[in-house]
C-alpha cells in the first residue's frame, strides 16, 4: 500500500425544530425521511421492523459512482438519540450523530454532528469541499425542510442543502 494521509473534517450544529422530540425523532429514519427531505431516495437492505433500528442497513444513490452504504450504529428512542455511519466507497466515510432534547414552547433542540474522513486522495478532495460555510447551508436547508413538514405535513419542493 502507498502512503496516504486521510483528511478529516468535523462539523456540529444545533437547530430548533417546531415540534417536541417525540414527533421529531421518528422522522430521523430512512423510510420517513422521504416525507420531508426533498429528493430523498433509499433502498432498504436490512431492517427487522422496516424502519430505523439499531443495525439497520440501507443505501442511497449518487449521481456518479456506487451507492452510499449506511448503517444505524445507535438507536435510542427513549433518549431521542440516533447515529449513523455511511461510506461512499473509495471516497468518504462519515459518522453522523443526532441527539434531541426538549426546547421551550414545545419545540426540539436537535444537536447534529458529522465527522467526514477521506478514503483516498480523491476523497480528500471531496472532504476539503465540506467547509463550515457549506455545512451551515446544509443545516439551514435541513432545518427549513423538517420545520416545513412539521408545520404543514407536506414536503418542500426543492432540495436546498446538498
User: DSSP helix count?
Assistant: 3
Strand arrangement within the widest β-sheet reads 1-7-6-5-4-3-2
Helix content: 10-25%
Main sheet: strands, sense, barrel: 7 strands, antiparallel
- Segments where pLDDT lies below 50 for 5+ residues? none
Number of DSSP-assigned strands: 7
Arithmetic mean of pLDDT: 95
Structural class: alpha+beta
Q: Which geometry do the CA atoms define? A: globular
Briefly summarize what is shown.
The chain is an alpha+beta fold. The chain has three helices and seven strands.
Please characterize this protein's 3D structure.
It is built from three helices and seven strands; from the N terminus they run E-H-E-E-E-E-E-E-H-H. It is α+β, with helices and mostly antiparallel strands.
Task: Reconstruct the topology from this structure.
Layout: E1 8-17, H1 21-24, E2 43-46, E3 57-60, E4 68-76, E5 81-88, E6 92-103, E7 107-118, H2 121-128, H3 132-152
Antiparallel strand pairs: 1-7, 2-3, 3-4, 4-5, 5-6, 6-7
Provide key terms for this protein.
3 helices; seven-stranded antiparallel beta sheet; single chain; 20% helix; globular; alpha+beta; 162 residues; 7 strands
